[in-house]
Amino acid sequence: MSEEELRKTGINLPEPSEPIGNYTSLVRSGNLLFVSGMLPRVNGKILFTGKVGGEITIQEGYDAAKLCVLNSLSAVKAEIKNLDKISRVVKVVGYVASEKSFFDQPRVVDGASDILVRIFGNRGKHARVSVGVSELPGNAPVEIEVIFEIRD
User: Fold this and answer.
1) Which are the contacts of 148, defined by CB distance < 8 A and separation ≥ 6?
2) β-strands 26-29, 32-38: how paired?
3) Is 72 exposed, middle or buried (0-12, 13-18, 19+ CB in 10 A)?
4) Which tens digit of pLDDT belongs to each residue from 58-81?
5) For residue 16, what are the CA distances in angstroms to 59, 119, 142?
6) Cα-atom radius of gyration of the chain, to the nearest Å?
7) For the domain bounded by 3-150, which CATH number is listed?
8) Which among 111, 112, 137, 152 is least surrounded, fewest beta carbons within 10 Å?
9) What's the average model confidence in pLDDT over 84-89?
């Protein structure tokens, strides 16, 4: 899917977020882009806070995971200027801040996976890890990291 097609489907990328520590948003190694863990932020503000299974519903966590991926794509676009250069989504790692008795982390991280498949079709299918954690930066409910393969 091209960037124009993204806009036609109503998907808008947020402005790239600045890292909140001593790291970079992504690192390129050969044809792979390793995108740092992204939070559900817009204009530097975390839009969802709390733990999934507590203050945050599964649907809100799902929506937060989608926003994390859009932030990842924004970082990629800032680096390579054109998302059409993405040849494949390789791997997604999702961290879900979870209440003690919450066990549906994969349903939350589906928000990331579903938007990637929607945008890239079969090129968006990927390997994945969904992990429950006790806390995330800024009290975010989800943090997503993605590895993309690109073509020159």
Assistant:
1) 32, 33, 35, 76, 86, 88, 89, 90
2) antiparallel
3) buried
4) 999 999 999 999 999 999 999 999
5) 24, 18, 18
6) 14
7) 3.30.1330.40
8) 152
9) 94
